[in-house]
Amino acid sequence: MTASRAPLTRDGLRVKIIVQRVRLAGAEYRVIRPAGPLKNGALYQAGHPYDLLVDRTDGRRIGTLMLLAARFPRSLIHLPMRATAPEPWFGRGDEQPLDLVLVHRAVQLRPSRWKRLRERIAAGSAPRELRTARLPDTDLRDGSEGDGAAPAARFAPQGTDRLRRHLHAETLLLTGSTAAFRTAARQVFAVTKDGPPAAASSLYINGGCNYHVCRSLDDWRDLGPRDGEPFHVEYAPSWTR
Fold first, then answer.
1. For residues 215 and 191, is the Cβ–Cβ distance under 8 A?
2. Domain limits of the chain?
3. What is the per-residue pLDDT for 46?
4. What is the pLDDT of residues 92-104, one digit of tens each?
């Protein structure tokens, strides 16, 4: 396998999106989703943790959408991921594929409303705007060097910068602050940077302890009973041909 070593360019923080505005229970929601389907990005609940598997390209798209969630606190970011082709190296057969919704805490969306809101989005009655979102690399870089991403700690910070989880209607809703989403994006971009050269070696084993590239969006050692399940991001070589 040939590893991609291309540095992060301006295109790395550009993503084509669809924007919709839908009303529910007297409130209007601005919903953003990627303009094209994710081919190599899948989210599973497998046992207790949540596992997000990404290749380089779609991992960067997901990381950029996390930065959008940080920059636009009044918008919901919807990533339909259940339709992604299953990652062929992953699985015991009991995994539940999930969609992902990024919710800035300023939105104050009740998780129980998501199913009805998704139905409004899918109905096609709300106008769709196709746009290209461009973000400054400082949203990700935070003063670092190299391919643009700040060095990501093995675990993300706790406290107010934690991403809270709510599982509803086959969707994981991640709720947090601007800082929390930017920290999460750096973890995802770190995986897309370090994954390809590691996967080019013969020692790379998907899901194999110490033989794959991954990050956690939280320190599982500090998770309490009310914090939800740990969120694990792993690099997986492209699986859609």
1. yes
2. 10-235
3. 79
4. 667 899 999 999 9
